[in-house]
Every structure is written in structure tokens, then in C-alpha cells.
Specification:
This is Dihydroxy-acid dehydratase family protein. By secondary structure, the chain is an alpha/beta fold. The protein has 23 helices and 14 strands. Strands 11-10-9-13-14 form a five-stranded mixed β-sheet. Strands 2-1-3-4 form a four-stranded parallel β-sheet, sandwiched between helices. A three-stranded antiparallel β-sheet has the order 7-8-12. Strand 13 and strand 14 form a beta hairpin. Magnesium ion binds next to loops.
Amino acid sequence: MKKLRSRAWFDNPDNPDMTALYLERYMNYGITREELQSGKPIIGIAQTGSDLSPCNRHHMVLAQRVREGIREAGGIAFEFPVHPIQETGKRPTAGLDRNLAYLGLVEVLYGYPLDGVVLTIGCDKTTPAMLMGAATVDIPAIALSVGPMLNGWFKGQRTGSGTIIWKAREMMAAGEIGYEEFIELVASSAPSVGYCNTMGTATTMNSLAEALGMQLPGSAAIPAPHKDRAAIAWRTGKRIVDMVHEDLKPSDILTRENFLNAIAVNSAIGGSTNAPVHINAIARHIGVDLSIRDWQTHGHHIPLLVNLQPAGEYLGEDFHRAGGVPAVVNELMKKGLIYENAPTANGQTIGENCRATPILDPDVIRPFETPLTEDAGFIVLSGNLFDNAIMKTSVISPEFRDRYLSNPDDPEAFEGKAVVFDGPEDYHHRIDDPSLQIDEFTLLFMRGAGPIGYPGAAEVVNMRPPSYLIKRGIHSLPCIGDGRQSGTSGSPSILNASPEAAAGGGLALIETGDRVRIDLNTGTANLLVSDEEIARRRAELDAKGGYPFPDHQTPWQEIQRSMVDQLGDGAVLKPAVTYQRIAQSKGLPRDNH
Ligand code: FES
Ligand code: MG
């Protein structure tokens, strides 16, 4: 059996002084020498819940069941805090903090006496941050979702996290509801502990953590308040102790096949446009070759099976009752769309885990024969505006399709006039200004919203049309930008444009009034302006020192801006990806005294 790394702290016969120093302080709250020197694995519980992180706060309760599971299996639990990441509360973005929490976790997992770790995941960026950190350090690790909130209801209708805001803001813009009803309507979508109950980034990333094999099967979809959630917390705690004895590490689980399975599942669930950013980041930290192009190649042809808002009608409780991720995987498996031999945290393959898991409600999880949409994955676009950007085609509404994609000679392409906004403040200020002459064939551009420009990349690309168009029944316009879009938004936007304007991307050169052509068939997005004019604008921009971004407000903003990669490549810290599997490759850190 492999020697546990925690022994180097607590039972090092070559260095009794240091052993004593390490032991005495951990014993000061009542842990005994017998326990610490028993040879039992020390298991970290990376706690992402706190009062600042309400989506994950229920992990503070679930951690008790995790501890009991760890103890049951013969391990010792050490719970520790993770830098909070709250998607809706953190300014300027929670995206800024994903890499910071990642760095913090790497230091903790590497520098403390931990043999394995339970990663408590939930709110959008907590899942990738935890999986990225575990990938870099590569000690045995298993993820535990906190689970979605119960379904929201308002006047007999389901109200889903985030999605209700996009709808309510249109109703308010159209004068159908006032401020009080707006707040009441939005608050109805958050009725319990847990994360967003729509197929937003949280449900997406928790589902994909399961598809990647990093959670116990069936773990992702259980609503936070259910008894099954606490039960799987206990099982997760038990399982990590065995994983330590088996030396089953992230690098043993996270193969390229697992990532391709995650891409397929993402299409079938109607996953968030943030998924490629985070999944590509995890792949880079574990050293698996995965590119933004893989999302179209391996994901576009997969149909949408899961009928959850924003693309469909149901919410998290319904997804769980219908069978959750294993039922989706099984359905894809029947068509040969899953690598069945991909390993998972419970020691079995994904095929063994999910085969024969039935769909229990065929309206919530559609059988392959009756999908909500065919070809539900992302399209990857490129051209003179950017090297890559993605579009979620599963949310293209019939209205949108009729307006833009119905020319019989050119059915998958559209052209229009650009109206360009420099950041969300500019958009809020001017969107209803009639002098912009926005009509139903205008394309709205948002720039200055990428990982450098808006540090962390803001979810601001999904813009509503001006209220005078909404009143005429135009509910969405094509939106293009170098920022992200909330996973709870149903807009068919072109997002995550890389490189961003602030990194010298083509979006920095576009001007209001330019014509732009988008062709979904060839996967191109081009500014219809002569090469000479583009060169002239480029020279003018360079002379000004590039596309401007606001001053750094914190040290971390400056540090991250200096080394962050673009969204298409996972927005990782570039120097960090050179550190691979450090628990193996770098050995143990030195003693501290
Ligand atoms: Fe935290 Fe959606 S805001 S899960
Ligand atoms: Mg969000």
C-alpha cells in the first residue's frame, strides 16, 4: 500500500521534532495522538459554503454527514474554508474569483497533511475552481454537489432562477408589472437552500462533474433539502476513504473520453455556455488535450433531451424525479454517444453506473426519439471579429428562426447593422435611445466584457431589445460579445469571443453602423468592411495604446489581468497550467521549521 502523505507530518520517525510540532497544535481541540498516528487517512472537506455564499451554504450542514461517512470508513475529517465565490453577489464578477479560489485550494491541498479531499461544489464557479485545484494537485478527490433549490412557483407557474429575471425585466420594460411585483416575482424563484434550479451554469456544471466521473452516480440532481442529499453526502465521505486506499486520483479518472462524455451530456441537458470555459480549464489543469472546436465536433449533433428552463419548461426537482444525469447518460449510451468505459469515482465505469437507468418522466427527460431539439450543441464561429466564439443553438426560438434564418437561398445566415456598446453601463444608458435606430435586423454588440476588460468576464452579452421593439413583439435580437451570458438566459447570443477587445481582438475595431454577416453553416462571423479599412482602424487603435479597460481596483485584478488566458482556452492562469499533478511531480513540500 502506498504511504499516506499525511504521515510525513504526523509520524515521521526521521524527524521527531517536527512530528511533535505538527501533532501538538492539531491536538489542541481534542483530536488525540492515537487518531493522528493511527495510519488512518486524513480527508479534507473543502468547504465552499458560508453566509456570503448562500447557494452553497447548505454544505455547512451536509459536511456533518460527510464527516460521519469519513469516520465510518476509517478516516479522519479536516474541514477547511475555501475563498467564497458567489455568482450573484460578487462584484465586479465571480469569474474573477474562480482562479483565486483555485490557487488557494492548490496551496491547501499541497501544503497541509491531506490524503484525499471532498470538494463541495454548487454555485457556478465553485465547481470548476474545486475540480481545477484537485486536478493540479492530483490527490484522491471526489465532488459533492449541494443540490438545486426546490422549484419556484408564482401564481401556479414554475419560476426558475435567473430565467425569471430575464422574463420579468421584459415585462417591466413593457409596463406590464411594477417594481414591487418585479421583486416578488424574482424572489419566488428561490424558495429553499441550494443552487439555481434552472439549467443554468450551476446545474450544468454539477451535472458535468458527474458526467466527468468525479461524483457518485446520481449525485448531481438531488435537490438540496432532500434526505437523499444528506444520504449521498455520507456515501461520498465513505467513498473518499476507499479512494485514498485505492490511490484513485483525478488523473486516473479524468481521461479525454470523460471530457467528451461531458460535452455530449452538456448538449443533451441544454447546458450553459459557461461550460466550455470551465470544462476546458479543468482539462488544461489535468493535462488533457481539449479545444473549443471539440465542443462543436463532439457536441453539436446531440439532441436536447432535458426539458428544463431556460430552453424548456421544468426545473431541478423535476429533473431529479425523472432520473437525473444517469438517465440522460443511459439514453445517450443507447445510441453509442457515450464512452462507456470512462472511469468514475466509485471505481466503476460510467457504463456500469448508468446502464439500465430508466427515464421516469418522459416529458422532463425526453427519449432520444422525441427530443426537444435536434443538434442542440454549440456552434463555434470564427472570422475577422474573433478567433472563436460560441453560440447555443438549442435556444433559438421559432420567432428568431423565422426572422433571421428563413431566407430560402441562405437559410443559415443573416446580415445586419451593428450597434456597439462599450460595457453594460453604456448599453443600459443607450438601449432605449431612438436615435440608435435599432430595428429587428440590428445586431447588438457588447465589448469590454472579457476576462481582462471586465476582469473575470461579465455575464452581460445577453441584451434585451429596446422597449419600443418589445412592445411590437420583438423579444430578442442577435447579441455578440466578448463577455459571457448567464446560463439561465435563453438568448441565442454569440458569446465568449476570443480574443476579447481588450486583448486586441477584432471586436475592438467594429463601429456602429458597420454591416456584419453571421453564417451558422460555415461557422463564420465577419465584419463586412474592406481589409484596408480594418488595417486603418487597427493602426489607429494601436496608436491609442489598444482598447481601454478600467483601472485595477484590487491587487488580484492586476495580477489576474497580467496572466489570464482567453475564454476559448478556459480563462486559466497561463503560468498555472505548467504545474501538473504536483503531489507526484514535485514530491512533498519542505518542513516549515
Ligand atoms: Fe449561485 Fe446560481 S447564483 S447557483
Ligand atoms: Mg451567472
